[in-house]
Write a structure and sequence with these properties.
Elements (H helix, E strand, L loop, with lengths): L4 H17 L2 E6 L5 H13 L3 E3 L3 H9 L16 E6 L5 H12 L4 E7 L4 E2 L1 H8 L4 H39 L1
Antiparallel strand pairs: 1-3, 1-4, 2-3, 4-5
Length: 174
């Protein structure tokens, strides 16, 4: 059944908004996935702050043509049945979600990505990004590294204070 012009314009507007606000848009072939599989993917993506959209490639090209960063990007890789994963909060989350799902569902094949700056990324680039720690994990590791000297000093001082207090207590009881 054909989609009405109004519905197409709505889809293009929604995709335009998603692409414009996305830090990374990863696209993958999903041929062979059941409806239940796609629903499972959408549920796991939602938990990670990633939106999954299935839109005709032609409509995605129309949406991209009106975004300054993406209007000159090569869209020749947009062929076949593709789904698009976007995130406005985390650059690597879409790649991580799709990569994790592809490990248990080999019918999902990563094809490439568009960065928020308008660069086309290959399948190998997307796979590399999927292996990176999440943004929150990197922030936690950085904070732990910054606090490490403080914890070391605190532990050293508390050890000496405990020794001093134990010595005073032992001397007072003797």
């Amino acid at each position: 059944m054909a989609i009405s012009r109004d519905k197409k314009q709505t889809l293009v507007a929604n995709m335009n908004e998603s692409l414009a606000s996305s830090r990374m848009t990863v696209f993958a072939q999903y041929q062979g996935l059941s409806v239940a599989d796609v629903q499972e993917l959408r549920a796991s993506a939602r938990e990670a702050g990633v939106a999954i959209k299935v839109v005709k490639n032609r409509l995605v090209r129309v949406a991209m043509s009106s975004i300054d960063n993406l209007k000159d990007v090569d869209t020749s890789a947009l062929t076949g049945q593709l789904l698009y994963a976007t995130s406005s909060e985390d650059e690597v989350a879409p790649a991580q979600v799709l990569d994790a799902f592809a490990k248990t569902h080999p019918s999902l094949v990563l094809i490439g990505a568009f960065s928020g700056e308008g660069a086309l990324l290959s399948q190998a680039d997307v796979a590399s990004l999927a292996g990176l720690p999440s943004k929150n994990q990197l922030i936690a590791e950085t904070i732990a590294q910054l606090l490490s000297p403080v914890h070391d000093v605190t532990n050293g001082l508390s050890g000496n204070l405990h020794g001093l207090l134990d010595g005073i207590r032992d001397h007072a009881t003797a």
